[in-house]
Amino acid sequence: MTAETGEQAVRATRMRPLKMEPMNVSTRGGRLRSRAATAAFVCAIALLPGPSYAAPGEPDPRSEKSIEDIQDELNGLYRQAEVATEAYDTADVKAAEQEKRLASLHQDLSRTEDRLASLHDLAGAAARTQYRGGNLDSTGLQLLLGDHPDHALDDAAQARQALRDVVTVSESQANARAELSRQTDAAAEKLRELKNSRADKAEAKGKIEKKIAEAEQIEAGLKKEQTRKLAQLEKEEAKEAEARWTGPGSGGSTSTGTGSVGGGTKASGAAAKAVAFALAQIGKPYVWGAVGPSSYDCSGLTSTAWAAAGHPIPRTSQAQWQGLTRVSLASVQPGDLIIYYDATHVGMYIGDGQIVHAPRPGRTVTTAPAASMPILGVVRPGV
Questions:
Q1: Cis peptide before 149 (omega within 30 of 0)
Q2: pTM: predicted TM-score of the whole model, two decimal places
Q3: Catalytic site residue 151?
Q4: Catalytic member of 106, 148, 298, 311
Q5: Which of 34, 48, 84, 359 is the 20 to 30 Å CA partner of 20?
Q6: pLDDT in tens, 182-212
Q7: Cα torsion for 305, 92, 74, 329, to the nearest 10°?
Q8: 298 is catalytic
Q9: Region of residue 382 (phi > 0: left; psi between -120 and 50: alpha; otherwise: beta)
Q10: Residue 294 CA from chain centroid, whole number
Q11: Residue 254 pLDDT more than 60?
């Protein structure tokens, strides 16, 4: 076929009318709707926000925060962890008390059940003897029911008198059953309380671990320069706290800060022992819920120190604040406990405006300015 012939064929094809297939109206509408849905889907995808990535060299958002902001964030998380720790310690103390009371109730139940069984046997023996028309040797009855069982063997007549009062066996049975019911109810209530305390402990534990993990994640993400600046900021704040101290020793004391108050007055007696014990724990890690000997939380340290001094005190900082004798800040002495915030932190005063305390997770037992935290008040153990 020549080029001219081919060109004529093409022209003929273009001029030939197109053959249109008949289209069902519903099919046509369906195609239109399908195309519209596809277009809408494509537009929606185009408008969706994609994942944001920092451009190469763009600073991390946290690195743009000031050191003060980072410190506030960390302090806030650790404070929340400490509040949860106080709740955990309180629940732990309650659970221990409830377990002890429950064990005592179980012992009472066992004794009452034994007594009820003995009364039952004795009542049966009395009933059988009376049925036969005989006389029951009442020595056993008198031994069980008398206030002084040893006197039962001194006088047989007294034993025979007890036989005539065999009705008291049934009365004793009734009393024993009532006591058994009361003890059973009390044990069930203590068991419910114990379960609640354990649930409180579990909830507090979850909060503690969550807040500590968040704080540790922040600290792990800090750059070396940020870590250095954070440490420097803490040192500066410690100096400012020392300047704010208005208690004993604020007027230029010459004491050493190891158990002496302003003017060089040494701690004595149990207070001196408590201070010495607490200072000996310096360097041991803070662990929430711990009471030694290898680690402590804040109230674990103070309660263990005073127990070592021969004067046990309540376990938690809130119980210490509520249960110990309160004194003024102006009269604080070594061994006294300074309570902070809303009674969720405690430190032991050692003189010269200083305390020894277990500060927070990630830190160790150390000394610090007594005015480094908001003071709620002062309590004095051993009085």
A1: no
A2: 0.63
A3: no
A4: 298
A5: 34
A6: 888 888 888 888 888 888 888 988 999 999 9
A7: -40
A8: yes
A9: left
A10: 19
A11: no
